[in-house]
Amino acid sequence: MNIPSPAACLVKVRNRLFPGFIAAAILLVSLASCPVTGAEAKLEKPAGESFFKGHRLTTFLDQETHRMRIELDEREIATKDDVTEIGKPTSQDLVSSLLYVIRVKTTSACGTFFIVRVPVSFDPGKSEVLPDFSACNSLVTTQTVKHDGWASWSAVSHRDDLATAQIALIQDEKLVRREVRAPLCLFVAAPQGDCIEAIVAEAAGYGERGTPTGVGTFGDQKIATFLNRSTGKATLELNGRVLRTFNNVQEFYLSSVDGANQFGLFAFFLKPEKDCATRPLLFFATKESQPEVNMDFGKCTKQMIRQTRTNGNVVEWSGIAYHLGDPQGYIASVIDHKLSTRRSLLPGCMMEPDQAIMQNCVQQALSVQGN
After folding, report:
1. Domain edges within the chain
2. How far is the C-alpha of 205 from the C-alpha of 300, rounded, in Å?
3. Which of 65-74, 124-133, 237-246, 274-283 has the lowest mean pLDDT?
């Protein structure tokens, strides 16, 4: 007895012509009588799902074939065979991109990671997948650094019986993998932050500059900050060249970029090891001008409020650096493409945490004359 295949049976049923409701009823009965093979009856099961900022990442696992699929917004972006288990996807907001990390267990009992990066200006063809990171490596350390308008992420993977370590990082807006020599500091019970940062810096080719702590642009001008925690040296670069260096630094990063493409105002946070912090400013009046640098702005302040006002093509900026409890603060303004700074007595509302950020209090502070 010849049993027709499901596809042939379906074609045969479709070719029958019946009018109206009778056709529908006979079609259902006929389809029910069609054989279904094991391969076509098998259903692929969703293994995990993550909704994040308008995007949906879903993982699927076929328990019979051990094949894994990853979909982003219902579009397949990666597959892998010999998979027995898929962990729940985790997500991170990295300002200019979204990052998903998926832990996978294989039939050989090895653990591995799939890392997916999605640019904020999402184009389905531009999502990136880094497959099989840290394959069979049991020790993985991740690190995320965030500042206002900037973030970095990296992962270091190693094993006690290997002389090298795998590094995953985002460099030049791309997800990349590197392999470096594993230093001794990586094999202690809990590697310190400066050890991890040194490994990532070596993998990225930053060397003595240490790890990046901020990147910003104005026109063709590119500003980048670096900090080497092991040496305490901080570096400020303009277009790939060293503009300033600082020694004995505990913290240094680019905190904000303002100007709405009319001018470039870069603000930094600099904390020496044995002194209070300052908020250096670097200013480009136009895209063709040379930078002005003010290293002493906002000395010993903990907070900074910024505001930009636009009237047609005219852009004005102001900032207030202050410390709660100190009536003296710092005011910076950009008017007519000119940067001015002053130290000023602040209104009483600036001493109250819930009042200092209110618009009317900020306007009172900006209207006070400096001294």
Report:
1. 1-33, 47-205, 211-367
2. 34
3. 124-133
